[in-house]
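Hey L., structure's done. Input below.
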Amino acid sequence: MQIAANEIKKLFLEKISERKIFKAKVTELDSEIRKIVKSYKELTGEDLIKKDRNRPVLDYVEDILKKHGDLHINSILEALRDAGHHVPKQSVAAGLIRYHNQEKRFKRVGPNTFALRKKEEEREREK
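Output:
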């Protein structure tokens, strides 16, 4: 049993080391992306990534669902990341569930899968 515990500990330490290397690479890539965005803006005077920082994330989720229809939370997060919004899964899921429970804006159509409520559904629920 001691051998197995030592092997598990060794594997754990290897994975921690891999994670540190991965995080360093992500930091390096983020830095390179910032440089590219800055260079683009200097050359063109335009922002490469356009974001309205005052707009709630769930407004972007609504846009994504309008464009793509029903989506699993992971696909929603991927689309958000593609648009330059890095938000925790729990935050987005909690917001979608809150609106679902209030019978507003979003509805759950499957496990971790969401869609927009149709305007007619919202009006019927308000009656």
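The radius of gyration is 21 Å. The mean pLDDT is 84.

-- N.
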